[in-house]
Amino acid sequence: MNCIVCNEPMVVLELDEVEIDHCLACGGTWLDSGELEAILENPREVREMLGEMAKGAAHKRSDRNCPICLKKMEYVTVGKSVEVRLDKCPQGHGLWFDKGELEQILHLFDTDRHSKVHGLLREMFKNK
After folding, report:
1. How far is the CA of 36 from the CAs of 6, 41, 46, 49, 103, in angstroms?
2. Over its length of 128 residues, how does the chain's per-residue pLDDT go in tens digits?
3. Strands of the sheet with 11-15, listed across from one edge
4. Global pTM?
């Protein structure tokens, strides 16, 4: 799969038994449907985040295309104190995170800062 931002080939990384597509050139990350829920280990956090996406979205159209169905993605905004704007496939194929946005989402919704996922993310992106 090529990056939806810079069109460079993406690499597949395993994050706590979940494969994520990551662009080494621009630092963006693609998560297929259900992968973010798998990364966030707490079901309450997942429900909270999905609720934020549903109610906070103005659903303006992004200029990026879903790498699966090639349809224009939509912007969704999540977070209360800190808002993060993501690109979401309108067909539900997945989410695009620009560089640093996945860490921001985990920081907002994964309250366990010492969790295995936080540690893996710090390790994966520590030099970027």
Report:
1. 22, 9, 8, 10, 11
2. 999 999 999 999 887 788 889 999 999 999 998 887 777 766 676 677 777 666 655 568 889 999 999 999 998 887 777 788 889 998 989 999 999 888 888 777 766 666 666 666 666 666 55
3. 11-15, 18-22, 29-32, 94-97, 84-88, 72-78, 61-65
4. 0.80
